[in-house]
């Protein structure tokens, strides 16, 4: 039993209750909100380990709520939406979301996504003997235990998945990983041709750590394969 706390933000009572039942069955503690304002207030009080956030909420949208939540918490955010457009998914990921699942969905798949999004921080601790816990490349300093990234001594706010992606690549310099490998390692799932999620997270990460994101010197494209982290600063 995990005991980790999940916040479910969903205005449809039936869907909210189904999610709650499946999460509690798998050992999670659940707090619930049916609108964005309550979700922000609950996050400040409860500090959930993960947030399941509906996009189409009454009043403040899930996207606007995500913006506010990112100022309060680095917990993974999993969007729920009846919209299948790729542009909506990209919007959610660009705002700091970690995952995106469309309705209708299988409750078991949702629980699997929750487990996958909570898994990486625990795996990081187990890597400390094989990979350094603190790394410096150029002006970037990465502390994998405190999950803090600094550039020229100034802390850079990263989402959970952005940190996991940077930490994974930086601890394996000059090794090339495909989109599928990165999705499996960072999200704990098979890619299912969902390369857009990786592309968006790499783009967002570059905007935060690269001196010139249009000409990256740290996270490098390997044409036709994927990405690698260059230790040459």
TrEMBL record:
Pfam families (alphabetical): Response_reg, Trans_reg_C
Domain Response regulatory intervals: 5-118
Modified residues (4-aspartylphosphate): 54
SMART domains: REC (SM00448), Trans_reg_C (SM00862)
Keywords: DNA-binding, Phosphoprotein, Transcription, Transcription regulation, Two-component regulatory system
DNA-binding region: 132-231
Superkingdom of origin organism: Bacteria
Domain OmpR/PhoB-type: 132-231
Keyword hit for DNA-binding: yes
PROSITE patterns hit by this protein: OMPR_PHOB, RESPONSE_REGULATORY
Protein name: Response regulator transcription factor
